[in-house]
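Design review, sub-item: ligand-bound model
Attendees: FS, YL, KQ
YL presented the inputs for the IPE complex:
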Amino acid sequence: MKKNKPDGAELSRLPRHVAVIMDGNGRWAKKRLMPRSFGHRQGMNRMIGLLEHAYDVGIPYVTVYALSTENLQRPKEELEGLFDLIRRHFAEYMKRICERGVRLRVLGDPSLLPADVGEIVARAERDSAQYTGKGLNVALAYGSRAELVRAANIAVARGQMLTEESLSDLLYTGGQPDPDLVIRTGKEKRVSNFLLYQAAYAEYYFSDKMFPEFSDEDFDEAIAEYGRRRRRFGKTDEQISD
Ligand code: IPE
Ligand code: IPE
Ligand code: MG
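KQ shared the predicted structure:
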């Protein structure tokens, strides 16, 4: 039987914020002799299923990396296919997720998106503004370096000296808990400009599975593995036990 509800011990070890680098859509499709766009469609479906599962399990904050600033250099047809997916499905899918009491935040630079796509995501964000307690971040036209430069420039314009806390507040994720666990699918072991500041002390979990085939059970395995890790935050084992 599928086990959805974690027991007490597992609950205390549950990450508060899980971020997912959803990589491998293109290779997944290629292996099936299908166009990359088919992989992105399947990836989007899987993303929704995985998000529902994550909130069911009791993770309050989830971030998904959907499109990086670097991805904007991809061929025009692939990008148009991705934007069309957003045009057709984003509003409906986000409604489905946010009705669970989840507030949507889009991380990234909307000016890099086609205007109508920017409006669709902004509207979905506004429509979820009533919700508190749970959060979904969709990183779209997102780059961590650009996010840090933007934050630094805001501080400069205000004549403000930065602290670790005030810099954190100026990021797109301001006010949210830092990710405890970053999952990357698709076999690559790299960070690809994702949450460089926020994930300074995150645990990383790499899966060889391509994102469209990364199942709820695979997610549970990542959560279980997180529960077995010992986070020391620079201290010794003995200090942690005290
Ligand atoms: C991740 O899958 C989704 C996006 C970057 C939009 P890829 O499109 O990078 O898939 P692969 O890595 O080529 O298989
Ligand atoms: C990272 O995947 C970005 C997203 C999943 C949206 P990429 O496929 O773009 O990563 P690199 O370029 O191979 O590092
Ligand atoms: Mg990739």
